[in-house]
Amino acid sequence: MGAADWAALGAGLAALLFGMKTAAAGLSQLAAGRLAAALQRAARRPWPAFFAGAAVTAAVQSSSVVTILLVGLADAGLLDLSAAACLVLGANVGTTLTAHLLAFGPGPAAGWLLLAAGLPLARRPRHRGAGRAAAGMGMVILGLHAMEGALAPLGRRPAFAAALAGVAGSPLLGLAAGALMTTLVLSSAVTIGVLQKLVAQGLLSLRAALPVLYGDNVGTTTDTLLASLAAGSAGRRLAVFHLLFNMAGALLFLALTPWVAGWVAALSSSPERQVALAHTLFNAVNAVLWLPARGWLLRAAAALVPGTGRR
């Protein structure tokens, strides 16, 4: 793998990361002023709150934006923790839409088209949100294609092959690797997009990739935890709840990995789609299990974060 391949890989990753952040910021800007009100209206009952969290996050394309907002609302006393927990569980399901969009594998022409359409709009105050969202998704598509071309020669390098073999041979190592990668880039959408390409290129089997996927879901709680440091005990408890149910789901799904791999492989022959389906399955099952039992995790979060609930 030459310098050009490394440059393409780095440029692709940078475009992917910046594109995801830009798209999320644009979509959030489109929803500005309505997002908090919509979440508060839906929070009166558990299941409507769950579905609202999923829908809002699917629209905004960033669970981090939604969960950090919920931490703020809970800390301000505008949402009780039980209602906020239902919304967070839904947000975890809604964020999986990104992986399905990436699995469609649009060509680089689509990326250039979105970028060309989005940049002029981003300069106009009235259309800035839509322009940033379009330009961001264009960068995501172009970044994924740049990485796809660079990963093939990388896979032939002994050191990289040995690292992947280590991940494939140890589910716990894969889980830790996924959590660490997502913590470093603060975006599970980016690391899952990379994981989809590794599986598509044959560099990592689906079964070996699943523990990494579970770790990605644990690592995505990092930005919420960091944001909660400026909050009172209610906000910090919600952030810890977010971490606890993702950790619980990861440990459960580690035991279910052979069945999950078989199920998603039966549903789709596309490696990218298989990873996306596993991502949705993980979050949907985890949310449905913990929605009625959320009180247990909230009590555990309260034990870990002492205080009276607000600042």
Descriptive overview:
- This protein is an all-alpha fold and 311 residues long.
- The protein has one domain.
- 82% of the residues lie in helices and 0% in strands.
- The chain contains 16 helices and no strands.
- It has helices at residues 3-30, 35-42, 46-60, 63-75, 81-94, 97-103, 108-122, 128-154, 158-169, 171-185, 188-200, 206-219, 222-228, 233-267, 271-290, 294-304.
- Helix 1 packs antiparallel against helix 8 and helix 6 packs antiparallel against helix 15 (271-290).
- The termini are far apart.
- The model has no long low-confidence stretch (mean pLDDT 79).
Structural class: mainly alpha
Number of domains: 1
Bin the strand percentage: under 5%
Number of DSSP helices?
Answer: 16
How many beta-strand elements?
0
Which residues sit in consecutive blocks of at least 5 with pLDDT less than 50? none
Euclidean distance between termini CA atoms: 54 Å
Globally, the shape reads globular
| Mean of all residue-level pLDDT scores | 79
> Major beta sheet, specifics?
none
Helix content: over 70%
SSE topology string: HHHHHHHHHHHHHHHH
CA radius of gyration? 19 Å
Features:
single chain, 311 residues, mainly alpha, 82% helix
